[in-house]
Fold this protein.
Amino acid sequence: MSEYTVPAVWTWENEAEESKNLGGNRPTAGSRFEQTLPVGDADLQLYSLGTPNGIKIPIMLEELKALGVSEVEYDLFLINIGKGDQFGTDFVKINPNSKIPALVDQSQEPALRIFESGSILLYLAEKFGHLIPTDIHGRTETLNWLFWQIGSGPYVGGGFGHFFNYAPEKMKYPIDRFTMETKRQLDLLDKTLADREFITGDTYTIADIAIWSWYGRLVLGELYTGSAEFLDVDSYTNVMEWAKRINERPAVQKGLAAEYKAID
């Protein structure tokens, strides 16, 4: 492999060819084509995909249903990020950052858009009064860990997952770097869960939903083929027990099995 010489100013190579792919990466934001997204009858309109970030919201909504909340019916529409659905005009109006999941609450006037999975989890928890403690200590601890996942997750997905599973060639330096960080995070969770049932203590919260969708699925072998063995996930016994415990929750299984409707 030849050494990369860093230019003074970065330019996008093969721009003309690569820009033909509607779902491909570009160094610019915004919509790429006209789009009309379907809108169902439920108050909550969810546009998502079954990725670690995407599954958080169906799980949250099913957990709220299990708690007896009656106002959480939702329409779930599939946004195929491989085909570039997230760059259509209607989706960009909901989330200008062109990432899933995105939610519209039609019960608000005017309809309210919510994007970023952590923001959606917090919005739903506060709107319906569940899965986030009301006391200052419990609430703050829940937010500590919710924001920890939002900040740490990209090292696992965009870092470890990309270079271990998706990059066109295996490169030792980035794999070593992001494996080191992923294992450090797993060790942190393992130490945290040594004396508590859930991430923030004895109570299941939105922090568990957010973290399980990445780290629980990772140790259960549901992310990145071969990564569970590579990361020696069985050595994180507390994380593994927690991951299995949450995986057995009926609402979690319902969220994972939620049916996505086509947008066209």
Summary: Residues 136-252 form a domain with the Glutathione S-transferase Yfyf (Class Pi); Chain A, domain 2 fold (CATH 1.20.1050.10). The mean pLDDT is 96.
